[in-house]
Specification:
single chain, 156 residues, mainly alpha, Helix Hairpins, flat, unfolded protein binding
Length: 156
Amino acid sequence: MSDYYELLGVSRQASAEEIKKAYRKKARQLHPDVAGPGHEEEFKEVQVAYSVLSDEEKRQTYDLGGEDALHGGGGFPPGFSGDFSDLGGIFQTFFGGGGSRGPASRARRGQDGLVAVQVSLADVAFGATKTVPIDTYVTCTTCGGSCCAPGTEPVT
């Protein structure tokens, strides 16, 4: 078991951009076409480390419980099969894929959210109740989410 942060050579406070940059550098160094056939396992470990640290949800899970918290029994983090036969995503990461940054990451139902709340020492010591605004998505009752006036159809 190796520490994913050490593997990529970044601190635990590293930004997503720093992690991406470190991953690209490490993956280029260890890629079988560059480093030769003896570095496949290291290359795979770097892939796993990046797949965890680049996903905010997986990164939080890893930070809280380490590598064991991620494994779903198959030896790889959930959502990562370990099948390296399709390296298209890796090359897209290296060489870019146009202006897109991949699928939009919209909050899913039940997903944890992070909110910064300022509290005083007295609040911490004696307890306090704070009101926190939460953004929610609701379907419009007038149009049912179609954004069309009642009695009209959307134009496609």
